[in-house]
Amino acid sequence: MEKKLFSNSLVLKEALSIPEKIYTFNKNDLNNYKEVVKLINTKKIKYIVTIARGSSDCVALYASYIFAKYLGLPTYSMPPSIITLEKSKFDFSQALILVISQSGLSKDLIECEEETRKMGAKTIIISNNDQSPLIKKANYFFNINAGEERSVAATKTFVLSLLIIIKLVFTSTNKININNSIQKLSEYLLNDSNNQWNANIVDNKMFLNKGNFKFEDITNKSGLACSNVWSTGATFADINGDGLLDLYVCKSGKPEGEKRHNELFINNGDLTFTEQSKKYNLDIIGLSVHSAFFDYDKDGDLDCYILNNSFRSVGGYDLIKDQRKIPDPEGQGNKLLENKNGKFVDVTQKAGIYSSEIGFGLGITLSDYNNDGWTDLFISNDFFEKDYLYINNQNGTFSEESEKYFKSLSLGSMGADSADLDNDLLTDLIVTEMLPKSLERKKTKAVYDSWDKYSLAVSKGYYHQYPRNVLQRNFGETGFLEIGRYSGVSASEWSWASMIFDMNNDGLRDVFIANGIYKDLLDRDYLSYMANTEMIKNMIRTEKEVIKKLIDIMPSKAVNNIVYRNDGKFNFKEYTEEWGFDFPSFSNGMSYADLDNDGDLDIVINNVNMPAFLYRNNNNNEKNKSISFNLEGELKNKNAIGAKIIIKYNNDKVSMLENFPSRGFQSSISNRLHFGIGNIEKVDSVIVYWPNNKISSYANLKTNTMHKIKFDDQNVENFKINKYSNSSHKLKETKLFDFKHKENKFIDFNKERLLTQMYSNEGPALAYEDINNDGITDFFVGGGKNQNPSIFLSKDDSYIEITSPFKNNLGSEDIDAKFFDSDNDGDLDLYVASGGKAFSIYNRLLDDRLYINDGNENFSLSKDSFDFEKPISTGAIAIEDIDNDGLLDVFIGERYNTNLYGLPVSGYLYKNKGNNKFERVEQNSLQKIGLIKSAQWVNLNNDEFPDLIIAGEWMPIKIFINNKGNLKDMTKEFGLSNSTGMWNVIKAIDIDKDGDLDIIGGNMGSNTFLKSNMRIYINDFDKNGAFEQILCYKLENSFYPILDKDELINQIPALKKQLFYYKDYSKLSIDKIFEKKLLKESLIIDLKILESAIYLNQNKKFEKRSVPNEINYSPIFDIVSFDSKNQKTNLIMGGNQYLVKPQFGRYDASKGWIFNIENTSNDKIHFNNLRAIDIEGQIRKFGIIETQNKKILITAINDQEFRFFEIENDYK
């Protein structure tokens, strides 16, 4: 329809002739490029001037850019009037003048050429008129030779003029064979313009691969056109088991028309197909998106899952609990169909599959996610419904267990793909969303839920969903951890298809993401000013075709597809431009296969309103080799769908692939399984895990070869896949006592709008010592605000709970605690630190408390031990005898100003005067040093006095050397000035066993929106008496607020007039929003490091060393160490922070870690046996005790039960 609409357009006709014109021009081009190149290379030309008129002026501007970039010559584009009127001001004696004129008749251009030539310039004419007066005396003439130009757009001459410029430059640089490149371009364009116009409102296309990247359009012959209907997903599968690939095409759009149902095309074996969907019960009518055929019940034939959405608009639903459990009353919704003797029977409800009206699935991703040998299903849902993970119960049913396996999901999930990204033989998962890549586009194209809406959705069962791509790393028994932000793949624009495959044959699978939305329906300016309620009402009153006009005025901008190269250990680097994918488009479906059988994978991409892309892979297949397999299965599963292949090569390397062709977005791939393996001649062994629970093995297979493997019942054995991996280590859980911490429901964002996360959930406190001297450890556990803390005192092989001393302090929130002998009476007293953000700066509930032990384990609050000058929110305490007087003194680190996060606060030192009396000792070095979270007294200089290490947020790790009770800041001298981070905890231990103390610090980690070059500005920006903190990204040499425009204006309404449009705000650095004087007066702190790290003490200088990558998947809040029998140092680390604004997403990618340290020469640290230990939640404190020859790990978790685990003494 649309093609016919434009068929008589002169502009279109001339545009469509361009590929042929490029081909003809390049073939017959007699222009003398080499003479001009020779002139440039003589160095007599010092600069270039381009002159043009009309549409040719754009060519002149481009010429200026490309000459300057590739030839390194100063280049200027000048209007002809400037030269003719001001010629006396210019010296053109060493200039090359490039005059571009389609007609060759412009009088001012003729005059310019003559004047500059007289002044000694060399002149080049580019024209479509070989009789032009311009060329009579010019030094060089380049003939465009485009023929008659009738279109006002000057389409042909414009393109060929550009082509001359490009040929001139690349002939000069001699970097590529430009003639060959242009020939290939013209052939590609000719093929596209003739054969590959693609849209939902035109016919499907079937192309037969003829070899050497030649394809024959056999659509009409094959009978696969599906005319006059909207086709969506296409799936190749041998559905009837005859050894030929059939095609199932899903349909969407209005539920009307003769062939509106999904169509099944049975392969006749002669390149023709017969539609037989009704015969197989597959003539489904709905909003079908995609299908997948697989043998879920292992009966030897292929069953079918159809992603089929409801006709009812998803946007019309409220967040109501359990809607997913109600099947669509119209019989729509997703469908699972069991193949029973060639007929597909609906078993959706029986099998436990949701088919409600709220599901809006855009992707089916098959894999054995729990590694039990049975196919599971991941369904990515757009809009507000969560994604589904269906685990195969091995009895014909599935259980939806997304919340068991995943901690965070993508909100508007689209395409997805699964594969093993780190070669640990476990399948990982990537799911795409719509989050723009750049900060500028985030501010104009992304819409975020409020904290209240997000919380409501979670409470109604829609789980933790965030607006970004997610990368789920599989840890086997402990489930998946979401690490997309760590890996750098969380934002890639409006992303449809994601595909995981080895693009460069290096043995690591890369990620390709197809991007683009033809109409930016989330453009913030459009939604606010063009499609708001009032505007729509006015249009309804005054205009016709309102919906069409609203769509027509939506912004539209093509964007690049994105490629991420896998560099190992889940580190990805964008390689879009380097690998040739930087052409803007509106892409969606894609597929890959070795189209020319040369041993690497080529790519086909479908686009909206533009031709499809075909990319040939130019990998050096002698340097990076591959091996591929075609499997032939048994019974009706001839292509062995669901099989798994594991290869072993180069002694210790392994790789795994699963055979599931339905992938990405509405797409299928080849059944051939392709492994890149680097420069390896042979694969040591290959194990095929067939769909019927049999295995076959092969050895010494040649690389750069495609191997056909047929199932042979006489040469297989039974198998059971190892369900778990060595990346997790479940500790044996035990029980000491029962206590559940209860966090208060205070919402920090209601107090400070510009915060990115909350800071009021940092309990519970934990302290442990043997209070009653019975040889068994006793415990103090802190409560949340309005929760009673408790002492658990050992008695008769159990614990009794003591709460009475604390009942008068329920309103406080316990952050930290220590047992120590305050009064030197031989028993242990208790210091409890109060903190949190749910208090005013004047609230005395923030005061810390000292409880005195009367010697009989009776504790009472001492009301006059400390005279606090003002209430502070405590973040850390450290207790030590700092002046060697035999009495223990107390350091208190202030966490933050409860009214303003980010403002540096102080540390306070209280000297023990005896008799439970403490007196504050002024220490200027502790004033306004940061947001303190951790402190430890240690001896760093081997004198008689303990020194102090302090760390916190927006501050470096700080060293204070104790000079007989006076603390001197020696951070710079110890090499830690540039360690400003978001530190949660520090521990000083001798990590390298060299006799001095090193530091290990728990930081925010790398799986976050924060970056190490960020900056915070703090000031009263609107002069209303209240200060704000504005967090900024550094881009080039400027700083840009990360805040959404609405957030910033809600906090500072005075900016509303200045920041009217989102597009304007998106481009403004902070110095363009606020006056420079105001910024200069602001408190400014730069962030330097986000990674948790080890600092080795090298002769009183601390040198940074990295910790294992996985530690940086989430914030680390506590660290404990122990030595195993082999004297190796073992570390346990844990953290997480859930209370983060939805646009940034919570930090939940840790279940606790255990690993040991080995030291080698040259001060390098080796880490071994890193394992996830499967402890759920926001870990705040660890403790390790010895009891009955066992080590017990105590885990204090925010808003959860305390948990206890046995640690093997010989862990290694």
Short overview:
The chain has 1212 residues and is an alpha+beta fold. The protein has 21 helices and 75 strands.
Describe the structure.
There is one protein chain. Helix content is about 15%, strand content about 35%. With about 1200 residues, it is of the alpha+beta class. The strands form 20 sheets. Strands 2-1-3-4-5 form a 5-stranded parallel β-sheet, with helices on both faces. It has a 5-stranded antiparallel β-sheet with strand order 35-34-39-40-42, with no helix packed on it. Strands 56, 57, 58, 59 and 60 form a 5-stranded antiparallel β-sheet that branches. The model is unreliable at about 1-10 and about 190-200 (pLDDT under 50).
Which range best describes the helical content: under 10%, 10-25%, 25-40%, 40-55%, 55-70% or over 70%?
Answer: 10-25%
Biggest beta-sheet profile: 5 strands, parallel
Give the percentage of residues in beta strands.
Answer: 25-35%
Please report the distance between the alpha carbons of the first and last residues.
69 Å
Residue windows where pLDDT falls under 50 for at least 5 positions = 1-10, 188-199
The tally of beta strands, per DSSP, is 75
Q: From the helix content, strand content and strand pairing, which structural class follows?
A: alpha+beta
Q: Supply Rg.
A: 35 Å
Characterize the overall form: globular
- Average residue-wise pLDDT: 90
Lateral strand order in the biggest sheet: 2-1-3-4-5
